[in-house]
Amino acid sequence: MTKDMVEQGSFSSKDYHNPPPAAFIDAKELTMRSFYRAVIAEFIATLLFLYITVSTIIGYKSQINKGDDLCVGVSVLGIACAFGGMIFVLVYCTTNISGGHINPAVTFGLLLARKVSLPRAIMFMVAQCLGAIYGVALVKAFYKTYYDTYGGGANELAHGYNTGIGLGAEILGTFVLVYTVFAAIDPKRNARDSHVPVCTRLLPHSVQFSNPFNIQF
Questions:
Q1: Residue 202 sits in which domain range?
Q2: Can you tell me the distance from the alpha carbon of 148 to that of 99, in angstroms, rounded to the nearest whole number?
Q3: H/E segment holding residue 85
Q4: Res 58 pLDDT > 70
């Protein structure tokens, strides 16, 4: 505290550094090898995320359809752990390569905040969507019968809840996710790097999959 104060009692300097806004269009990025490494990292991370999580949901649906004991196999808590645990690992592995977005909503939010350039944001979102498609395609290829039987692991609204409530739940969950990302990367926070995977992913997914709106898988 004392080093940030002058004798008159006013602040002389900040104890953090705000990075300058990213260029809206940076053509030089397209010639950098690190740019394409980041795009590939987003593709692979999203592919793995969808493959593991959709497989877990299909396994859960298969379990409850057979009438097995829910305490023995995968449960709703197990699904939450699969989502939170996978995204924790993937963000930890890709943060220093691409920033660990693994979600178009996060990338779009960072674009609006001038944290990434437009070409990077577009390429990231394309890579994320393609990774998601290929991840689910692998699930369908390996577990075709289960995939077709249980609707590809898609979740659905519980009885008594309409589409508007489901939409509101998705909007709220996405807001919490993006808000937490920005809170975790705030330059005013100290020693934030080691906590980014936990703050940005584990908490939002735990909230989402605790079923606050009774959205069933």
A1: 24-216
A2: 35
A3: helix 76-94
A4: yes
